[in-house]
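User: We ran a pulldown and think these components assemble together. Before we commit to crystallization trials, I'd like a predicted model of the whole complex to look at. Sequences follow.
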Amino acid sequence: MIYVKDANLNLPWNEVNIGGNIYGGGTSLDVNTGDWRLFIPAWIEEKCKHCMLCFPTCADSSIPVKNEKREDFDFKHCKGCGVCYKVCPFDAITWEKEDK
Amino acid sequence: MSKMVEVRWHGRGGQGAKTASLLLADAAFNTGKFVQGFPEYGPERMGAPITAYNRISDERCPIHSNIYEPDYVVVVDATLLSAVDVTGGLKKEGAIIINSAKSPEELKPLLEGYEGGVYTIDAGKIAEEEIGRNIPNTPMLGAVVKVSGVIPEAEFFKDMEASMHHKFANKPHVIEGNMKALRRSMQEVKGL
Amino acid sequence: MSIRERLSGNEAVAVALKQIDPDVVAAYPITPSTEVPQYFAQFVADGQVNTEFVTVESEHSAMSACITATAAGGRSATITSACGLALMWELLYVASGSRLPVTLAVVNRALSGPININNDHSDSMGARDSGWIQLYSENNQEAYDNYIMSLRIAEHKDVLLPVMTCQDGFITSHAIENIELLEDEKVKKFVGEYKPEHSLLSGEKISIGPYDTPMFYFEHQYQRARAMVDSKKVILDVSKEFAALSGREYGLFEEYKMEDAERAIVVLNSTAGTAKAVCDELRANGEKVGILKLRVYRPFPMEEIAKALAHVKAVAVMDKAESFSAMGGPVFNDVRSACYELKTRPHIINYIYGLGGRDVPTTDIKIVFDALKEVVKNDKPGEIYRHVGVRGV
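Assistant: Here's a predicted model for the assembly, 685 residues in total across the polymer chains.
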């Protein structure tokens, strides 16, 4: 049995969990889906009113909120879909092609 | 496979030929035999001709097919005599037992030259008089045991009584009626 | 001391289930297996078992319920026939692919069409490549014994594959025959408690049945295939343990009068018994004939069968299922392939027989043995793909 954090693509057949079972929860946190991004949003803190319209639209839960205030994007998981940019009424979010 | 006895039952859907074959299997089982009791299944409905079978032996019978050359044939409904080839394959050392008020002499001409034993029993009448309903199973079973000798009579009576006491513990009159029907059928079965 | 009884094949399976008392039984009734869930529902109603009986709306749901119950950590079982098995199809693969040891009693019936409710093996033979272990049973006794053993095989840590136990619809499922039952406590002790190493309700963080990417899928299939290979040993070990308990011995197959046989029939389920009776009759006339009755069809005992048939001159493999491949039935193709590497190998022909409830009398078996006589005489197989019992053929 192998936990997902220890798994890698070099595992031989007899070290892979049988039936494809995945052990250890919260596995999506470990995957760097931010790497899939083509466009990247940016948060302009000065313009942000913390109206809370953006964070519920984020399909990747990549807009953290603490004490009723949003914080900067979680770029490890943000896939750059641009929905937050679309819904922001205050131009507090930009969305541009990402240079890698 | 010494002394294997094969029985074929002909009846109509709803008359209890299948149940009778299972009763015979039960009775033989209770006297220490190896048994098979099975009906031939199809899309039959109430009133349609049905067939059921028994194999009774001292060792387990491995054969799982219908019976083509039975030692005994039991006809639960005499109207089948003109509808089904009831004596097909029946061994001439064996016998056919028919539920009918008629005598064996009267029915023999309907049996297409069958040379073996012909027996009749008015099972419907016995059932009506002793059990109160026209369910010919019990008297037919008695007649088959009598004619075939496949189970010793004394043991058969003892086992039937015990199993009926078990089944109808709250209905002593049912037990008495059934036992009377069994006794009468064994006395009244007429042979040729 | 065992219990002398007389039960139909369906009753035998229902009694086995009662004695096992699984956590979950989910079933949808279908002829000729209907009686099994019917009897079992009565046991539940009478409080004779502690099972959660789920009256699902289809066989697809029955298998789904068993898969999820097993994933949750329970022991689950179901029963079906023919079209019911077909409706489970997708889930059969999910159960074995997720390595969940579900057990299934199959009462073999022809898979339509035209619609037919009687016996042949087209239902379970179609499922032969679904990753399920398949055990076949000659009579009510074997259906009972195999079912009890199937749990131990399925749940073994080296296997973790579901098992289907098959018997012939009506022919044995509805025939009352003598049977030796084990006492309840003995069965309970033999099957033990189901304690999976991992399960959804164990408290650990686990996902069962997730999407499997190309990076891992092949390795999982390789594991599954290896488990099928490894299950042979487990089947034999469990059978040995069962023999110690019951006095009834089971192997991967039964060799009946095969030692010096020149002609042999390979067959499974109820016709094996009929074939044995014919074998006895021919032996009494000095004919060197034998029967190889397959019990374990998946995993297929390739090397063992080749060894058992190596000395035979001519073999007829009997299939109670067409494969419509234009090259014979499934058992035939496996047996013939198994013998390919033999230095001297028998001629092997195929007989399709008994489809859709066509009765298989002893005379059909004699026809097959007679045909083998011709094969031996000519030292040539002649027509390889044959049928017996079809009018005009």
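Residues 20 and 188 of chain C are 6 Å apart (CA to CA). That may be worth checking against your pulldown data before setting up trials.

User: Thanks, that helps.
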